[in-house]
Write a structure and sequence with these properties.
The chain is mainly alpha-helical. It is built from 20 helices and 2 strands. It has helices at 11-25, 41-50, 75-92, 99-121, 125-151, 161-174, 181-193, 211-235, 239-262, 264-289, 301-304, 311-314, 323-328, 337-343, 345-350, 361-369, 373-378, 391-400, 407-414, 418-427; strands at residues 307-309, 355-357. The protein has a two-stranded parallel ribbon with strand order 1-2. The longest helix is centred in the first third of the chain and has 27 residues, at 125-151. The two termini are 28 Å apart.
């Protein structure tokens, strides 16, 4: 077991990971009561205080790259610029923790938007390459900012609801999205089906360590989602969702078409390539998020998704690594995930949940496709029965969870009791 702690982890991630690794070293599995370990109460309080603006230990997130204790500004800048900015931004966002959202929105509007406009005014390839690199860097953070937005019907306070509603329609096409498509696919479809047999992005029917299956999985989404998603909504009787998805998707395509008739290369750089790369990236990440599916309870959120404690996922992408916690409660605030995991530690242990560290979603997908289960086993933070396993046993366990399900198995696992399982997912709140 790798017990190293990445020094670039966020403070909450560091606190949580140290706790879980110490539990594993002490041989702890799960308490008989199903309640949080009494020894964890101080840590739970600390994690909660870091996100509670009424606590003396509260720390807002202002930049993704640094925690509060890492920022050492000169007094003039701190007193006259930084602190006033933080105080103002906290009145704009819904939660005082989320100053970073304002930081990012301002960043995108001051860089991506003027760069795109100028490319249409005066296109040059050096500028185009710079714009590609900049947009590539923005794709991940903006996607997860938008992820928070769509799950919580916005991120800004009520006084700024028109800005909250409007900024996404300006930024989405610039940073790889079409209007509202992420909302309808992710919130209204993926979280409804939860990687089940009706989920168009389900991994159940894929052999997850097969490169051909992976390529087929990505290609199906990229080529067919514009047909399959509205048909799914129609089958479910959700005609408004189908119509709104089609209006947003093809309205965006038509706008790009009109702009391409005016300036093809600018449209190619600003809209078309970011859209293609984002959709490839999202599906590669989703493949990793649901690569390991329990052979006995594939409809369990604890057993069909995983948790990552790593810097790229959580520091740079607003705790995107806490995928299990997110599926348990999709509306949970991103800063609350580490606390939620520790509060539900016994459940993670008894469910044999998978928690990794020092590896991101791209790493998970790559190592699964490479069948490098020993590497993955070494990155596992063992909980529950995993504590007593050898590295080889953990590797074999991970291999078994990448097996594709037959149609007979899917009918058996997702037939009787499917409704009850969906109800259970909505009731688990920690």
């Amino acid at each position: 077991m790798d017990t190293s702690i990445d020094p670039t982890l966020t403070l909450p991630d560091t606190i949580l990971l140290k706790h879980l690794l110490q539990d594993a070293q002490d041989g702890k599995t799960a308490g008989p009561s199903g309640k949080p370990d009494p020894n964890d109460q101080g840590t739970i309080k600390l994690l909660s205080d870091l996100s509670d603006h009424n606590s003396d230990r509260f720390q807002p997130t202002v930049f993704t790259g640094w925690d509060q204790e890492d920022l050492h500004f000169r007094q003039f800048f701190n007193v006259n610029i930084y602190q006033p900015y933080v105080r103002w931004a906290q009145t704009v966002v819904r939660r005082p923790t989320d100053v970073v959202f304002i930081t990012h929105i301002l960043l995108y509007f001051s860089t991506s938007l003027p760069s795109a406009i100028y490319l249409f005014y005066h296109f040059t390839w050096p500028h185009a390459v710079f714009h590609w690199l900049m947009t590539g860097y923005y794709l991940g953070p903006f996607a997860i900012l938008l992820h928070n937005h769509i799950h919580n019907n916005g991120i800004l306070s009520k006084e700024y609801r028109w800005i909250d509603w409007g900024f996404v329609y300006i930024l989405e096409p610039l940073i790889g999205h079409t209007w509202d498509s992420y909302y309808y696919h992710h919130v209204k479809h993926h979280h409804t089906e939860a990687n089940g047999p009706d989920d168009l992005s389900s991994t159940l029917r894929m052999q997850r360590d097969s490169i051909p299956d992976f390529l087929m999985y990505v290609a199906r989404f990229v080529l067919l989602i514009d047909v399959e998603l509205p048909l799914y909504f129609i089958r479910k009787g959700k005609y408004k969702f189908a119509a709104k998805f089609l209006i947003g998707e093809f309205g965006n395509y038509f706008a790009i078409y009109l702009l391409a008739r005016w300036n093809f290369w600018a449209s190619f750089v600003v809209f078309i390539t970011p859209l293609a790369f984002l959709r490839l990236g999202i599906m590669a990440s989703n493949f990793g998020q649901h690569a390991f599916v329990d052979e006995n309870e594939p409809d369990s959120d604890f057993r069909s998704s995983i948790t990552l404690i790593d810097a790229p996922s959580n520091r740079l992408h607003f705790n995107d690594g806490y995928h299990t916690s997110h599926h348990i409660n999709p509306r949970r605030h991103w800063r609350d995930h580490p606390t939620a995991v520790l509060k539900a530690k016994d459940r993670y242990q008894t469910e044999n949940a998978l928690i990794f560290h020092n590896i991101d979603w791209w790493g998970i997908t790559f190592r699964v496709l490479a069948k490098d289960y020993i590497y993955l086993a070494k990155r596992l933070v063992p909980v529950g029965p995993q504590v007593d396993m050898s590295i080889e046993e953990r590797a074999e366990m991970l291999r078994s969870k990448c097996r594709k399900f037959s149609e007979d198995e899917i009918r058996a696992k997702f037939g009787i009791g499917k409704v009850e399982k969906k109800i259970e997912r909505t009731e688990v709140k920690t």
